[in-house]
Specification:
Pfam families: LicD (PF04991). The chain is 41% helix and 17% strand. The chain is an alpha+beta fold.
Length: 293
């Protein structure tokens, strides 16, 4: 008996349009980074797509790119200055209602709201996902504390705005976790805990070790688990280019090691019921695309 798919599916035409817009954003992102000498590289599903499909994973609807924190901080004002008419920078610093610690380079004039973010009051559009990577203390005790604090406060930031986050599983465990999340959201709302304060707590923890000149590892702790984006510096450099659709995108030198740590046998196609995307609650392409339909 075929298992029921957990995630909604796009029609082929809509998914292709989304991928085309995201590829346009990626090209603009690469152009501004290359012109200003900023390091960047594809990660996670984008890496799998490059190695397994030479582009998007066929059912995927986003592109994930990481940058060292210093380069990331230089990029944001450059995008706003040079491309502000086309893109906005979506993060919790600029838009306090945005409940995530990732940053999005979002195309103006589009709408893309995932089901989990459907009630968020922010201009969410089709985007490129940016992950700033921060230094991880070489002291194991300090590193564990940094990971714990950053991950914890990033989840509190989500719960401040979203009472029932999307979970990757179901059953009685999901019901219990949803109940706990709903209670936490209620308490945070009743106490009027400022979203900006929570964001600053997460940011402080995430960037806590950046005062070190060099560390062996970089990480973005504020994800599903705190170590899923852990990168050994020796595995990142020198960067190498791989085909991704019709561009050559930078990736970590030892991409295989990174992806194996995250996914195991990433070259094996997952069963259909686990082929995840970010199917939107609300989707709107910009006017030019509508008029040319």
């Amino acid at each position: 008996m075929k298992k029921k798919k957990q995630f909604k599916e796009y029609d082929d035409f809509t998914l292709k349009r989304i991928q085309e817009v995201e590829l346009e954003i990626l090209k603009d992102f690469m152009d501004i980074c290359d012109r200003h000498g900023l390091d960047y590289f594809g990660i996670a599903g984008t890496g799998i797509g490059a190695l397994r499909h030479h582009g998007f994973i066929p059912w995927d609807d986003d592109i994930d790119v990481a940058m060292p924190r210093d380069d990331f901080e230089k990029l944001l004002p450059l995008v706003e200055k040079e491309m502000g008419d086309k893109y906005l920078i979506m993060n919790a610093e600029r838009y306090p209602n945005y409940p995530l610690m990732t940053t999005r380079m979002t195309m103006r004039g589009t709408k893309f709201k995932e089901e989990a973010l459907k009630n968020i009051d922010a201009p969410l559009g089709i985007f490129l996902d940016l992950y700033p990577l921060d230094k991880v203390s070489d002291n194991p005790k300090e590193a564990r504390r940094q990971a714990r604090d950053a991950w914890f406060w990033s989840k509190i930031l989500i719960l401040r705005s979203i009472p029932f986050p999307m979970l990757g599983f179901s059953g009685w465990k999901a019901k219990i976790i949803h109940a706990i999340c709903g209670l936490a959201h209620l308490v945070l709302s009743i106490l009027h805990v400022p979203k900006t304060w929570i964001y600053k707590k997460a940011y402080e923890a995430e960037t806590r070790s950046n005062h070190y000149t060099k560390t062996k590892n970089l990480d973005f702790f504020c994800d599903t688990t705190p170590y899923m984006n852990l990168y050994a510096v020796k595995d990142i450099y020198p960067l190498r280019k791989l085909p991704f659709e019709d561009v050559e995108l930078n990736f970590p030198y030892n991409l295989h090691n990174n992806l194996t740590g995250m996914y195991g046998d990433y070259m094996q196609l997952p069963p259909e019921e686990k082929r995840k995307n970010h199917y939107p609650y609300e989707l709107e392409f910009f006017k030019e695309m509508k008029e040319n339909d």
